[in-house]
Amino acid sequence: MSDQLSAGVSSAPTLAPGVPAPGRGRSRPRRRRSSLVVPYLLLVLPVVLVVVSLGYPMVKQFIMSFQEFGLAQQFGRPPTWVGLDNYTQILTDSYFWTVVARSVAFCAVCAVLTMGVGIALAVLMQQLSVVPRILLQIALVLAWAMPPLAALTVYKWLVEPRYGLLNWILTSMGLESFRGYSWLAGSPWSFFAIAAIAVIWTSAPLVTLSTYAALNQVDEEVLEAAQLDGANGWTRLRSVVLPIIQPVVLLLFMLQIIWDLKVFTQINVLQSSAGNNKATNLLGTYVYETGISGGNYGVASALATVMLLLVLVLTFRYMRTLMKQGDL
Predict the structure, then answer these.
(1) Is the distance from CB of 159 to CB of 183 less than 8 angstroms?
(2) CA–CA separation, 202 and 136 (whole Å)
């Protein structure tokens, strides 16, 4: 028996080194194909949800921007195709350009201040001991999780003309001109200052926590080498840390631009106490005022399309930078 086995082994064809066995050669392509199919199958459900929830409204909005679509069409009358009339009406309206300039300026100020406050708090969290850092993280999470309407109600109480805390502090310091002063209705500048604080209040926690997570990924040996070369804390942050976490910072800044350009809730709620919508409208509230309040859905759709194009133009450079770095 042992002779037969040894004879069978000796008579089996020998394979050259590096040549796969016949059975293995057939199974590996199958496993490779199945491993390539699984990720695409996992993407099917998210893609379908995105197409249904975002794709259809965007296509409908784009179609309505070329139609006369008002209250009559809401009750069944067929819409009329008007070509580029809605866009012509928008682009030849001086108030539209005023709102665009106001929105871009408000977005730029809020995005820059939010990133500055968020990065400063993240660096501060790195320097704190355990207990203060945890307390600060809890405070940031609570601020971020607070519903915007609840936070805005608090802000309206703080700046209330007769009983607000802000006017009470200022008049207690001898500034009698602020007795009964309305911060929301008194001036567009004070209105947007309160609105900017409300926007930064809700946006800064996410920037802080994300930047803090990125800072913890910076190699300590790199920082120690920079310190041995004589770099102080500010030089290490500017020349070593920020370039390393640049992809995260750029991504957060891009998201801030998108969120701040289409801000709606804060402006709309504060406008209910200000009463000067024409002087305080941004693109989000202007679209809502034209469509929902004015019943001119065709022009509102054209406004929303222009707003979408504006967001893409403003974020194109950052998207291109991130894609070149291979982080997206």
Answers:
(1) yes
(2) 15
CB of 117 closer than 8 Å to CB of 200: yes
- List the Cα angle 157/281/169 in 5-degree steps: 25
Whats the size of the chain, residue-wise? 328
- pLDDT digits 0-9 by tens, 255-268: 888 888 889 988 99
Distance in angstroms (rounded) separating the CA atoms of residues 293 and 306: 19
Q: Are 207 and 114 in contact (CB under 8 A)?
A: yes
DSSP 8-state secondary structure symbol assigned to residue 51 = I
- Give per-residue pLDDT as tens, 166-211: 999 999 998 888 888 888 888 889 999 999 999 999 899 999 999 9
Strand intervals (E) in the chain: 67-68, 80-81
CA dist., res. 90 & res. 99, Å (int): 11
Q: At what angle do helices 188-215 and 265-274 cross, to 10 degrees?
A: 150
Residues 150 and 266: beta-carbon distance below 8 Å? no
Residue 126 amino acid letter: Q
Inter-CA distances, 180 with 125, 183, 188, 214, 298, Å: 39, 9, 17, 46, 42
CA nearest 191: which of 286, 102, 101? 102
